[in-house]
Amino acid sequence: MKLPAAQTVDLRREPVDAILERVEQSLQVRIDRDTVVYKRRSVGGRTDRGTWVRIERRGLDRIGIQGGDGTPSAEALHGIAKPAWYAGVSWLDENERVMWRADETDLLPGRPVGGAIVAKAPELSEEWWAALNVSLDALAAQRTNRIATPDTETITQELVTETTQRLFPDVDTTITQWVPAHADLNWANMTAPEFCIFDWEDWGMAPRGLDAATLWGASLAVPSLADRVRQERRDDVESRDGKLMTLFVAAKILGPYAHPEDPRLDPARAVADQVAKELQAD
To answer: Could you list the residue range(s) of the whole structural domain that residue 55 is in?
Structure first.
């Protein structure tokens, strides 16, 4: 039987009790309903054995050859502050082309720093920034057959070119260096005061500087924070591929779906225009 294509669904507005019960039965845990966090395409909660279960809904067209196993495959990475993975279960939805995936991990060592995009600067210690750099450097030094899927879309040379040249048509977008990246590095996926990166569903090989550019984009409403991100990751953002990733992220912010009142628009445009000039001058 051919299933219909996946529909756009927001799990913050859809009933998920049956999904939670299925996961509980499969993983032999009990999820505390008072702790459940609802996001657009995922839900998660604390279990009765002191762990955390995250459940994601993803259309099959957004999985590709990787199979949706980002969290368990990230267990092989070393030198990175992240929760340990223990068990997982996945299944095909009975009614549409959607895969559900649940993973049980350690509890986070702290609270998420903020939302995906922050409106005020978080209070972060120098030790926190140092730990961020240690983890991102360790990640980039490793190798994988996985390809990163930022915004659930497999990143390719073609995607970089198409996205970037919509706004910066005169820039040569040829990528020369691919390294492992988290691919969804924002303030909702890191903890403080103790540093930790979580939600590894989209990690894989990506152009150098993707993580730095993504975090910069999530920080643009607070210019001093965006500047700090670029300062901390300057080796990445000042590389040629890092500059291209800055334009790639900026093009998404400034693109056709940009909200006119988005506070990130002006700072994104200012940095991107300067970076584009630098690339064209090389």
So the answer is: 17-106
pTM: 0.91
158: pLDDT strictly greater than 90: yes
Which of 106, 137, 167 represents a domain boundary (last residue)? 106
Cα–Cα dist 73/81, whole Å? 15
149 and 96, same domain (yes or no): no
**Separation of alpha carbons 48 and 31, rounded Å:** 6
- Gap between the Cα atoms of 32 and 66, Å rounded: 31
The whole-number pLDDT of residue 179 equals: 98
CA distances from 133 to 60, 79, 170, 217 (A): 34, 11, 32, 17
State whether 160 and 225 are in the same domain: yes
Q: What is the largest CA-CA distance in the chain?
A: 59
Q: Is the pLDDT of residue 235 over 90?
A: yes
pLDDT of residue 257: 83
CATH of the domain at 90: 3.30.200
Question: Residue 270's CB: how many other CB atoms inside 10 A?
Answer: 13
Please check whether residues 161 and 99 belong to one and the same domain.
Answer: no
